[in-house]
């Protein structure tokens, strides 16, 4: 008779694998990718393809030739980083910018720490922030690009907002000494428009509904817990609401704050990155609140119009502390000297 | 302007003096009186904190040396006699020399010599394996081959031989700290006298099964036949629970037992090659 | 009514109760049987028979040694061949009485009629003495002597008796079959234990994936209104002692504590039936319902097996080891033990033999932890398996103790759920053993 296997329990394994989880994230990102392709056309496709290909290539090359071990690109995590990086770029960005971003994201933010699971900061965000700081003009150039179906958006106020995100317009306007009501009067920022699809913004943040569909998918598949995104949303809403009540002419209303910029993309896909988010639910809530607060602080009092990336990166640094001090609720009282 | 400077200087100086006074009293109050010899002894030690001496670390060992009335029960296996002499000199005590020891692996059941009966599929740990079952091969006493001893060794003296699946001890690196002995769930590794010129004779098997069972399980097992016991002129060999054991304090390295052993379970190491042949010819 | 459950953690493996519809069959008597003296937790029994002696079924052949121990009775009539050391399923040798079976003669005073006796004539202490005398142990797997569990220590008070019919492990159906085939015996057995604990209420917890069992037992609510059937959510490890107590009573057993610390006593369904047989029919514990199952087996069986039958005979009866089966497990796939020695005899703790194929049971290749916190969400004890596993590999005993590794119930949820295929429990289990050893060696304050 052939030899039996003997091993410690448990003898069966659940269906989840790193690869299946990453595939679920990619599926959840599909609506946002589709909207950006539909809306930004060829330039969005270029960004996405360049992002994915260069991230996977960089990871493969580093593991194969520098770390000299079996490449783990099959786990699909580099693909997720590539997509997220591409979705965080302005649609008019040149392809080589994405390649530089990928090298920084995978090479510096991920591989130098030891690869998947070891990195302290979200690779896609490190890539994006690196580009934002190094190529500020290219990274804030929200020039209009040709949509795939040119006729589809002719009704929108394309000319009125060409070139800048709503947040940048607000920041610029406030800088000129205008009041918010004046700015809003000049521009068409209806919530409905922002909810479904709007013009200014990076590839992934143009449609709130597409991102929310992805969020729902992740929750249904139990890929992420809702704590981090909900904590961020609630904090942004409450904190910006307080500021708005204090001075509606100086601070934008909470709904505007929620729907603009990268809040949705960041909260749903970047802040919930497994590796760089806390392990316990208590930690997750604190982490989410931190991101929300920092985002609004940067938006309303900092010099950048947008603060989600910085907020998430800052909170990434706090995660080890949160893991150390926010322990899950244990079962049963502890008995001393038991 | 000058008033501000004067004020700053004065207030800071006053603050400094007050804090210094407070610090002085705190330091006095919480002063820990420690025997300065502990530091001296610790400085002599290798500082590996391996625990081979039986204490938590080198510091704890030093404390116990200072407190003890003699050094008979304290021995640093890593530092050996040289270090112990140093310590004795520092403390004004006598120390008896101990023979150098080394770790010895008492199993030769390499792959091929034992038949595998089950497959193991779990974390690489002898402890985990031994908790599950007695062994993946026919011999339940033998080396489990997952390398707990190699991981326990702080001096890199043990490595697993991929071919045989057994650990190998590098005598030059081995300090006889005993970490591997504690790590081995099968109690295969033993600290033995290193012997003159590292020559030593030992039984490389711990199988307690009866002869026939042991032999069936492994071709190089000790079968407890007592031939070696009878052959030994110094009474150094005892057979208990079907397994022979050589008392290294009595063994004179004559190697008569090696020639007698029908399974080759008794190993003589570091003897010159010719002599080995000679013995065989003498038979 | 909502199903009750424990609040945190747990996983949902496919329940695979493919042998649920196989009625319990009597397993034929073997020619030679191997009755082990260590079939229970605690000190092994001391054999009281010699080679050549004739024995009857139900006769005492091993007397308990020590407070936590249990007697062993002969399940067969025949002649004692010898008393030898026989390897158990892990290969560890235990003193065993080998009996050559002939006929089926039962000892006097044992009632084999099978009629249902409802009146409980014995008093509380008499019941406990009877249970001890008949060698009843916890049949859920831990095999802790039942009489010890029913003797409430001084200063503690039993408030809840919970009979565990959760059977949350996938595949196993022995408890389920007994619940639907012997419902009244179960209820009377529960009442007997209520009397022993002087309680007037008891609970039987059953997972919702066994609606027939719940239905059937609730059908007796008129006669047995004092026993409440609690429907439990299908979630592993619902049948874990601490989890079950939490689900039924809402109380948390303290860390390092026992159920009795919160006034609870938990007994398994088959234990309750064994108690009934012992107290009402004078029947010692000599047989056991064992599920023989697996997706690779052509037939699924629930056997009533006398103790001492070799596992290999059970396997032979199920058609031998199938070609694609690579692992046989005694118990369930989550906590069961892989069988090392298929010639080991059936003991009191054997509840199932499960055959798994390589595809079902192969371990995943291990990759980096992606810190997804799946294990943290899955741990029913609120521990952080990822951290414990890492600390265990580094042998950081103090940190492990600080993070309460000793609370681990070894349910396997963490290893089951880990997407990176890290054998978390393998490492945590070892660390837990070492930490407990260190804690026990410490002088008590």
Topology:
The complex is a heterotrimer of chains A (338), B (283) and C (445).
Chain A: E1 4-6, H1 18-40, H2 42-66, H3 77-87, H4 95-110, H5 123-134, H6 136-139, H7 158-161, H8 166-175, H9 180-186, H10 191-196, H11 208-220, H12 227-246, H13 254-259, H14 263-270, H15 281-301, H16 308-325
Helix pairs in contact in A: 1-2, 1-3, 1-11, 2-3, 2-4, 3-4, 3-5, 4-5, 5-16, 11-14, 12-14, 12-15, 15-16
Chain B: H1 2-29, H2 36-44, H3 58-67, H4 80-91, E1 101-105, E2 118-120, H5 126-132, H6 148-152, E3 158-160, E4 167-169, H7 179-183, E5 189-193, E6 200-203, H8 211-217, H9 227-231, E7 237-240, E8 243-246, H10 256-260, E9 266-269, H11 273-282
Chain C: E1 24-26, E2 32-36, E3 46-47, E4 54-55, E5 60-63, E6 72-73, E7 78-87, E8 93-101, H1 124-133, H2 146-150, E9 160-165, H3 174-181, H4 183-196, E10 202-207, H5 211-218, E11 227-232, H6 241-249, E12 264-268, H7 269-281, E13 287-293, E14 301-306, H8 311-317, E15 325-330, E16 337-338, E17 352-357, H9 358-361, H10 374-378, H11 385-393, H12 397-402, H13 413-417, H14 424-441
Parallel strand pairs in C: 1-14, 9-10, 9-12, 10-11, 13-17
Antiparallel strand pairs in C: 2-8, 3-5, 4-7, 5-6, 7-8, 13-14, 15-16, 15-17
Helix pairs in contact in C: 1-4, 4-7, 11-14
Name the CATH class of the largest domain in chain C.
Alpha Beta
Structural class of chain B: alpha+beta
- Outline of chain C: globular
Rg of chain B (CA only): 28 Å
Mean pLDDT of chain C: 91
Question: Order of strands side by side in the largest beta sheet of chain B?
Answer: 1-5
Instruction: Supply the number of helical segments of chain B.
Output: 11
């Amino acid at each position: 008779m052939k030899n039996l296997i003997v091993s410690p329990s448990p003898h069966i394994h659940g269906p989840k694998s790193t690869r299946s989880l990453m595939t679920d994230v990619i599926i959840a990102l599909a609506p946002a990718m589709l909207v950006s392709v539909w809306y930004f056309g060829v330039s969005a496709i270029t960004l996405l393809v360049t992002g994915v290909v260069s991230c996977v290539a960089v990871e493969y090359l580093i593991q194969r030739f520098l770390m000299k071990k079996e490449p783990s690109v099959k786990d699909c995590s580099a693909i997720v980083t590539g997509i997220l990086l591409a979705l965080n770029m302005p649609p008019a960005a040149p392809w080589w910018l994405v390649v530089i971003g990928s090298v920084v994201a995978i090479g510096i933010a991920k591989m130098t720490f030891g690869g998947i699971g070891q990195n302290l900061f979200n690779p896609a965000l490190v890539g994006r922030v690196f580009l934002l700081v190094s190529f500020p003009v290219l990274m804030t150039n929200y020039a209009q690009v040709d949509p795939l179906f040119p006729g589809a958006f002719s009704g929108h106020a394309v000319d009125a907002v060409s070139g800048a995100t709503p947040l940048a317009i607000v920041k610029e306007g406030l800088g000129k000494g205008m009041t918010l009501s004046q700015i809003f009067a000049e521009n068409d920022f209806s919530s409905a428009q922002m909810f479904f699809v709007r013009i200014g913004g990076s590839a992934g943040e143009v449609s709130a509904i597409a991102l929310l569909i992805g969020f729902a998918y992740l929750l249904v598949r139990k890929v992420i817990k809702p704590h981090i995104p909900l904590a961020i949303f609630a904090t942004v809403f409450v904190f910006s609401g307080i500021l708005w009540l204090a001075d509606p002419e100086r601070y934008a209303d909470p709904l505007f704050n929620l729907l603009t910029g990268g809040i949705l993309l960041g909260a749903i896909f970047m802040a919930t990155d497994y590796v760089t988010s806390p392990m316990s639910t208590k930690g997750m809530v604190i982490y989410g609140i931190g991101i929300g607060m920092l985002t609004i602080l940067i938006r309303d009092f900092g010099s950048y119009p947008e603060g989600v990336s910085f907020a998430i990166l800052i909170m990434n640094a706090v995660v080890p502390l949160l893991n150390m001090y926010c322990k899950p609720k244990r079962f049963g009282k502890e008995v001393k000297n038991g | 302007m000058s008033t501000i400077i004067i004020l700053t200087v004065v207030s800071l100086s006053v603050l400094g003096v007050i804090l210094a006074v407070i610090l002085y009293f705190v330091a006095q109050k919480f002063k820990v009186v420690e025997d300065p010899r502990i530091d001296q002894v610790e400085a002599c030690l290798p500082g590996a904190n391996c625990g081979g001496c039986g204490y938590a670390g080198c510091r704890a060992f030093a404390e116990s040396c200072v407190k003890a009335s003699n050094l008979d029960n304290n021995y640093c296996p890593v530092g050996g006699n040289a270090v112990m002499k140093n310590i004795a000199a520092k403390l004004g005590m006598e120390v008896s020399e101990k023979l150098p020891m080394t770790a010895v692996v008492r199993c030769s059941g390499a792959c091929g010599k034992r038949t595998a009966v089950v497959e193991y599929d779990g974390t690489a740990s002898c402890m985990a394996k031994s908790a599950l079952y007695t062994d993946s091969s026919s011999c339940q006493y033998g080396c489990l081959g997952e390398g707990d001893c190699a991981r326990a060794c702080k001096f890199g003296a043990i490595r697993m031989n991929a071919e045989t699946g057994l650990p190998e001890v590098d005598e030059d690196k081995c300090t006889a700290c005993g970490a591997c002995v504690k790590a081995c769930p099968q109690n295969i590794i033993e600290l033995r006298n290193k012997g003159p010129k590292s020559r030593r004779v030992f039984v490389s098997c711990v199988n307690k099964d009866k002869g026939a069972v042991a032999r069936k399980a492994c071709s190089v097992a000790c079968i407890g036949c007592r031939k070696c016991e009878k052959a030994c002129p110094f009474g150094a060999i005892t057979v208990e629970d079907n397994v022979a054991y050589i008392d290294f304090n009595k063994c004179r390295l004559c190697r008569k037992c090696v020639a007698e052993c029908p399974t080759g379970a008794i190993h003589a190491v570091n003897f010159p090659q010719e002599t080995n042949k000679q013995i065989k010819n003498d038979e | 009514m909502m199903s009750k459950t424990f609040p945190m953690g747990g996983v949902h493996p496919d329940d695979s109760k493919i042998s649920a519809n196989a009625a319990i069959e009597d397993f034929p008597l073997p020619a030679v049987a191997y009755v082990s003296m260590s079939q229970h937790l605690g000190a092994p029994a001391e054999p009281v028979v010699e080679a050549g002696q004739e024995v009857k079924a139900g006769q005492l052949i091993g007397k308990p040694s020590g407070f936590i121990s249990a007697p062993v009775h002969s399940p067969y009539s025949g002649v004692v061949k010898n008393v030898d050391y026989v390897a158990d399923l892990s290969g560890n040798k235990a003193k065993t009485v080998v009996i050559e079976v002939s006929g089926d003669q039962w000892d006097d005073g044992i009632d084999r009629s099978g009629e249902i006796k409802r009146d409980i004539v014995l008093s509380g202490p008499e019941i406990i003495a009877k249970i001890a005398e008949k060698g009843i142990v916890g049949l859920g797997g831990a095999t802790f002597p039942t009489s010890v569990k029913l003797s409430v220590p001084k200063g503690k008070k039993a408030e809840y008796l919970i009979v565990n019919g959760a059977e949350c492990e996938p595949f196993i159906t022995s408890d389920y079959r007994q619940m639907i085939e012997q419902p009244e015996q179960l209820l009377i057995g529960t009442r007997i234990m209520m009397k022993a604990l002087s309680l007037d209420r008891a609970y039987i917890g059953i997972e919702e994936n066994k609606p027939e069992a719940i239905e059937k037992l609730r059908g007796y609510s008129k006669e047995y209104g004092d026993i409440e059937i609690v429907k439990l959510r299908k979630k592993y490890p619902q049948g874990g002692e601490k989890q079950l107590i939490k689900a039924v009573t809402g109380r948390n057993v303290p860390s390092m504590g026992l159920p009795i610390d919160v006034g609870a006593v938990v007994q398994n369904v088959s234990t309750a039936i064994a108690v009934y047989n012992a107290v009402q029919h004078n029947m010692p514990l000599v047989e056991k319902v064992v599920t023989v199952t697996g997706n690779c087996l052509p037939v699924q069986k629930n056997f009533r097996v006398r103790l001492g039958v070799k596992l290999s005979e059970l396997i032979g009866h199920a058609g031998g080891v199938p070609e694609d089966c690579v692992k046989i497990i005694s118990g369930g796939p989550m906590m069961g033990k892989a069988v090392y020695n298929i010639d080991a005899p059936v003991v009191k703790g054997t509840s199932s033999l499960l055959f798994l194929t390589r595809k079902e049971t192969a371990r995943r290749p291990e990759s980096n932890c992606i810190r997804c916190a799946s294990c943290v969400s899955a741990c029913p004890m609120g521990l952080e398996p990822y951290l414990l596993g890492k600390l265990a590999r580094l042998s950081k005993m103090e940190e492990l103790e600080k993070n309460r590794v000793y609370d681990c119930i070894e349910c396997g949820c963490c290893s089951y759920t880990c997407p990176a295929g890290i054998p978390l429990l393998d490492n945590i289990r070892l660390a837990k053993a070492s930490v407990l050893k260190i804690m026990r060696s410490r002088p008590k304050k």
